[in-house]
Write a structure and sequence with these properties.
By secondary structure, the chain is mainly β. It has no helices and five strands. The protein has one domain. A hairpin with a 2-residue loop joins strand 1 and strand 2.
């Protein structure tokens, strides 16, 4: 069993369309210093020792408002691997606006 994580946009629960527990992201450095601008960060992706979980959610365009939009993340249930003592840290949030392709 995995951690159960709920994502909301303006109070509406979003559907999780992708879960990747093996995700590697060359732009996330954790506690290490971020390299200087212009460096080849993508070559360091294989060196990453962080354990990342990538979650992707779908949101209908009508859920977005003009002006302030609120995104909230809630851990509803912890799986056996995480346990109640293991912290969860959000490293990056990205929002892509466009049509969903199947």
């Amino acid at each position: 069993m995995n951690d159960t994580i709920e994502m909301r946009l303006n109070g509406k629960v979003l559907e999780c369309v992708d879960r990747n527990p093996e995700w590697i992201d060359g732009q996330i450095y954790g506690d290490r210093p971020v390299p200087q601008s212009g460096s080849q960060w993508w070559t360091r992706a294989g060196e990453q020792k962080l354990k990342l979980l990538r979650l992707q959610y779908a949101a209908e365009p009508g859920l977005f408002r003009r002006g302030l939009n609120k995104i909230s993340l809630c851990v509803r249930k912890r799986g056996p691997n995480g346990g109640a003592r293991a912290p969860i840290q959000v490293e990056k949030v990205e929002v892509y606006v466009g049509r969903r392709t199947e």
